[in-house]
From TrEMBL:
This is tRNA(Ile)-lysidine synthase. Belongs to the tRNA(Ile)-lysidine synthase family. SMART domains: TilS_C. It comes from Pseudomonas brenneri. PANTHER family: TRNA(ILE)-LYSIDINE SYNTHASE-RELATED. Its EC number is 6.3.4.19. GO terms for cellular component: cytoplasm. GO terms for molecular function: ATP binding; tRNA(Ile)-lysidine synthase activity.
Amino acid sequence: MKPALPAKLLQSLAPWRNAPAWHIAYSGGLDSTVLLHLLVDLAKTQPLPPLRAIHVHHGLQAAADAWPAHCQAVCDAAGVALRVMRVQVLPGASLERAARDARYQAFAEAISPGELLLTGQHRDDQAETLLFRLLRGAGVRGLAGMPAQRPLGAGGLARPLLDVSRTELEAYARDHQLTWIEDPSNSDPRFSRNYLRHQLFPLLTARWPQAVNALARTAGHLAEAQGLLDELAQLDVQAANQPSGLSWLALPSLSIAPLRTLSDARQRNALRYWLAPLTRLPDSEHWVGWSALRDAKADAQPIWRLADGQLHRCNDRIWWLPTQWSEFSDSPLSWSRPQNPLQLPGNGQLHFSGCAPDGPLSIGYRLGGEIMEVPGRGRRDLKRLLNESAVPGFVRGRLPLLYQGSRLLAVANLARASTGQGDDWQLHWTPPTCDQGLS
């Protein structure tokens, strides 16, 4: 056994020594078997968090049905609790990607707040990732490879073996007479990573013996470059993150004017950073939607449709609307007890401050052509009142309207669109929370 390997592992995991638990992503293969053995051995002499293991069963091949039993036997012998999670891999263009997505979704669900998931990817995997993404035309973030750590669900994910070669892991496994599962699919050249591993890398290393180390080192350089780009993006997003004037509208938004002062490349960098937690991003060839949205006429309301929602421009501001934004019921509702808050199906909650007007009251939504009496101003068209309050077009059909019989009394949250809001009462609308998919 090389003493440097457990010491290197312990050093890389130092920031999480006080985590509530460490979960090992245990496939039963070489990498995760070595990681499990290393951690169990270290726990005999070091005060580590409780160790647990998670085996994800994809059900993609008949041989995999025997793997949970093998993993259970190894974990029982090591004194580590094992959780077997069965997932359904959705069909798609890439079986590899679909399986990975299902696996990490299961991991995210399995770990509790503050806990850490440990995976066994190593230096060779990092080199393969860089080359694979390079051939797909990835940008700096993609070419930075797999991060050594990142958030996952309510906890975090760490890859403590990224600086360890596959050769070192194989030597450790032989020295300790470990047994592991050989996945038959790992030799199938139809999968891109297997082709790189078994066909291309032997040619590269025959000519350049240090190719794996060099590629992994390049990924590290690119990760550092991406960190600098992120720092620049933080400054640019902060400059554009000005108040919207609609504090009740809890949707991510940015002022477009500060973004226009930046170069095109810097604009894209800032938007990638801002949109990354919200949606999957397009590749570099499909950013024409941003240019069209940015350069549209001032009175236009352009939309840029992305994978998980839409980016709208309104009143010289861009707003992010997730896909779920349109999923609500616009059927009228009676409000028989206005002293209590009213839950709107898929559209948050209404409540009064002050004494509510006399009933019967009901809630409806805009159909077009509504007229209301505004004290001191006479009859006013609702569209004009909404324009005066600079309400974005995408939210107008969602604003609750308060009726007394057939008479329109008020528009929620808009004091200038009311027959009597002021000292007596006000109608407040709280849109759905972030957990409901609206920010």
